[in-house]
Automatic annotation (TrEMBL):
Domain Serine aminopeptidase S33: 51-121
Record's protein name: Serine aminopeptidase S33 domain-containing protein
Source organism: Subdoligranulum variabile DSM 15176
PANTHER family listed in its UniProt record: ALPHA_BETA-HYDROLASES SUPERFAMILY PROTEIN, HYDROLASE
Pfam families associated with the record: Hydrolase_4
Length: 200
């Protein structure tokens, strides 16, 4: 069974490196979500790329996503229930807080272009992508997710802690793990915790 690791906005596939090194499973895929050559990058385009990438898979996937990756994992599981064996959702939102996106974009606009070089996305593309996620709300469709779900959130990730707890209530089959002394990017702060869950 293939395990798919989906990174967050401001990250690349390289940010899963420490997790992958601790995995005892061999079939692992870490797609670069922003590798498309198109100038106009959007959430729906990234989801479409993932759907195309895994369209030939015969076995259901185990999908682990962080932040933007978690949104994509939820969306993919809603649209393709038969293709998903389990989900691990890290720092997840199921309804994008538009005020938070707008505030984030305000910060992005003030940052120099150079700051975006390591993200694999230009400044304007990052702002466009974040803006394309403003209206995402999966609340009404969460009951379409029937597979096992593990929700992870760093205790210091205050922006996503409340949503993670609420997501646990909305998905009765889910288990929630609050990771002490960790922030949002758990693939950097607590790679061993993620690896342990994926190895079981």
């Amino acid at each position: 069974m293939k395990t798919v690791l989906l990174h967050g906005l401001g990250q690349t596939a390289q940010d899963w490196k420490e997790v992958v090194q601790q995995l005892s499973i061999s079939d692992v895929d870490c797609p670069e979500l922003f590798s498309s050559t198109e100038d106009e990058i959007s959430y729906s385009q990234i989801l479409g790329d993932l759907e195309q990438r895994y369209s030939e898979e015969k076995e259901p996937l185990r999908i682990c996503g962080l932040s933007l990756g978690a949104l994509l994992a939820i969306d993919f599981a809603i649209q393709h229930e038969e293709k998903v064996a389990s989900l691990v959702l890290i720092g997840a939102q199921y309804k994008v807080p538009s005020l938070l996106i707008d505030f984030q974009n305000l910060i992005f606009r003030c940052m120099p272009n150079k700051a975006f070089e390591s993200m694999g996305l230009s400044k304007s593309s990052t702002i466009k992508l974040a803006h394309s996620m403003r209206s995402l709300d999966f609340t009404a469709q969460l009951n379409n997710i029937c597979c096992p779900v593990t929700i992870l959130c760093g205790k210091k990730d205050t922006a996503n802690l409340k949503a993670s707890k609420r997501l646990k209530e909305l998905l009765p089959q889910a288990t929630l793990h609050i990771v002490p002394n960790a922030g949002h990017e758990l693939n950097k702060y607590a790679p061993n915790t993620i690896a342990e869950i994926l190895n079981n």
